[in-house]
Design a protein that fits this description.
Two copies of one chain form a homodimer. Chain A is of the alpha/beta class. Chain A folds into two domains: about 170 residues, Rossmann fold, CATH 3.40.50.720; about 60 residues, 6-phosphogluconate dehydrogenase C-terminal fold, CATH 1.10.3660.10. Helix content of chain A is about 50%, strand content about 10%. Chain A is built from twelve helices and nine strands. In chain A, strand 4, helix 4 and strand 5 form a beta-alpha-beta unit. In chain A, helix 4 packs parallel to helix 5 and helix 7 crosses helix 11. Chain A is elongated and about 70 Å long. At the A-B interface, helix 7, helix 8, helix 9, helix 10 and helix 11 of A face helix 7, helix 8, helix 9, helix 10 and helix 11 of B.
């Protein structure tokens, strides 16, 4: 069943995610007008020039006039300020959703500032992205086959949740639902912590006196392990701040794992090390076969 | 200056590295006969069938008769036993080299068992590999543009070091020299530790009650961060055991870095986190531009 087109879509934060959502709905013939709003006038002008948005709004009053759907897609640290600023201008029927990598803080902002609007404020998180950021990298096909996690509120009207789900499905995405607490714990483990660990390794090496020498001999294993250390610092600062309790819990769990491996190394426990490595390898290979078109396979190249 | 062909090359451990060395020298017209030796008869037969080796030797006496060059390319944990076993059958002029990812243990084995042969026993480490292992994955082009680190002994005859260097150069490799201590410290930092960290993360998640759920939401950042967790457990067990002191030192350094980041998270220190992330990103991007044809770029996709 095809969902009906959005008359006016407002995208706050026209970067990779917001821009791709706009382009995907345009490609599907499911949006008549896209209005961009954001803190950077320059990036709104680029989005306009690229046809990602049809119009840039000067303020929330202008942006929200006649808006049917609003997607919040700026770094998660801005959520509360943005929700607070938009709230007074929101018409009763406008559907609000977001694309933040963390959910508890988004929900807190909704409860704080959208108290009368909770029927139509549906938190979401598309598990998609690319190496690039900014609206120049926006791509109508970005969400094809990717998961979008919705964490609906008890107050949400079922029709609003369905509408958000259908719009993402029209972008090619697969919908999952979770509680916000569960969402934030799961992504702390499989996404936020790995980012922190990769940043930590590169930072550690880069600050050494012999950093030049170390980097000269780093090869393909290092390349892949640290690829996410080139991620956007502000975005990841925000994720770390808003989800810091779950990330700390995951970090502490990981430190226990490292303490265990450290003991195996200290005691030169070959069978113990091989068992850990073999279990990890089996789990990684099973994951690769099941969840990704893992063209590059797994394994070392050093 | 083209180096002269090797009359008879012996490869111990005909896997990805040993097999690729044989194929590369064959492709360059620089070897007349390749003799394989190893603990697995089945893998020697596959290497024979694939034309990676010309003959499989039943024992070291047979393998070393008339051998001009020997490459040791089995997992590093076998080095001492292999060197001990070959020593009695080694003719005075035969050149011995190796491809181990660690060097101090190889040198210890040379000093222990090749006391009269040190002029011609040259330790080396090709920084190359691929996702696959085994002689089926052997590839004549594997070493093109890759570094090979030699860690010559004071006892080495300059002509022997030059000969080893020229053979690797004929495979397309770039030669570097380092002390074995420096080699083992550098690779503990940029290769061995990242492997341990990736194994640790996957092992940690795989052992949880909700492992299925966690893996379901893992995406591209996790894929690349953990690719090396699919590496060969025996090979990495051996590397961890023989280089455990350097790896422990690197692990402890990394644990200090994580303690620092943990403190930033605990205190919700946004500027501090952003500074670490921004420094890491700058270093990772500079590395990507300088050292790799980093087609995939860096950055997050979550």
């Amino acid at each position: 069943m095809k969902t009906k087109p959005v008359g006016r879509l407002v995208v706050c934060g026209v970067g990779l995610i917001g821009g791709s959502f706009a382009l995907a709905l345009k490609a599907a013939g499911l949006v008549r007008e896209v209005v961009g709003v954001g803190r950077s006038q320059a990036s709104l002008e680029r989005a306009l020039a690229l046809g990602v948005i049809d119009r840039a709004a000067a303020d929330w009053a202008q942006a929200l006039a006649g808006a049917e759907v609003v997607l919040l897609a700026m770094p998660v640290g801005q959520t509360e300020a943005v929700v607070k600023a938009m709230a007074p201008h929101l018409a009763p029927g406008t559907l609000v959703t977001d694309a933040g990598s963390t959910k508890r803080n988004v929900i807190e902002a909704f409860y704080l500032h959208l108290g009368g609007h909770l029927a139509h404020a549906v938190p979401g998180h598309p598990i998609a992205g690319a190496e690039k950021s900014g609206c120049e990298a926006a791509d109508a096909t970005l969400f094809r086959g990717r998961k979008v996690v919705l964490t609906p509120l008890p107050e949400n009207e079922p029709g609003s949740v369905l509408r958000v789900a259908q719009l993402w499905q029209a972008c090619g995405a697969i919908i999952r639902e979770m509680s916000p607490q569960e969402h934030d714990r799961v992504f702390a483990a499989v996404s936020h912590l790995p980012h922190v660990l990769a940043y930590a390794l590169v930072h550690d090496l880069a600050e050494r006196a012999n950093a030049e020498q170390l980097f000269e001999y780093a090869a393909g294993g290092f390349r892949d392990f640290t690829r996410i250390a080139a991620s956007h610092p502000e975005m990841w600062r925000d994720i770390c701040l808003v989800n810091r309790q779950a990330i700390l819990a995951e970090l502490d769990q990981y430190l226990s794992e490292l303490a265990f491996i450290r003991a195996l190394l200290l005691s030169a426990n070959g069978p113990g090390l091989e068992e850990v490595f073999a279990k990890a390898r089996a789990a990684r290979m099973a994951w690769g076969e099941r969840y990704v078109n893992d063209a590059n396979g797994g394994g070392s190249d050093e």
